[in-house]
Request: fold
Amino acid sequence: MSARAVDFEIRGLAAADLDAIEAIEVLAYPTPWSRNMFIGELAKPTSICLGAYAAEEGQLIGYVVASRYVDAWHVMNVCVNPDLQGNGIAGVLLERFFEITDRDGRRGYTLEVRVSNERAIRLYERLGFVSRGIRRAYYTDNREDAHVMWREELDEDEDASS
Reply:
């Protein structure tokens, strides 16, 4: 399937989406985030929470949750309904997130990803992330290690000189 096989739109997540978020989270992760974790991120003024919604039904099919810290954006949760993974939805969500945060200047981006999640690692690498280390026994469900990945954001002057 190609990214165009699924027609969807990107918009901000809202509290009304919590049931749909939980349903996807349970399908996708062995240790899903709690409802309260999502409520906290939705309420935080330093967070950006975006959803991908199927064009025809308006049903939530994926989301990204990120929060701004002092010198970086932390991409905390990227998830797509497992039945629709591989259609480019996560990439489009992340690209939209980068567009929104582009005016932030020199801010970088960081995330953790399971060392076994090769599909996600390839996606993040295509989007400019590089592994900067390993966080040992990061995941509580099986004590799996996580890659700590970073993407540096260049300011306009540096982009122009490249």
Notes: Residues 89-101 form the longest helix (13 residues). Residues 121 and 141 are 20 Å apart (CA to CA). The helical segments are 18-28, 35-43, 89-101, 118-126, 156-161.
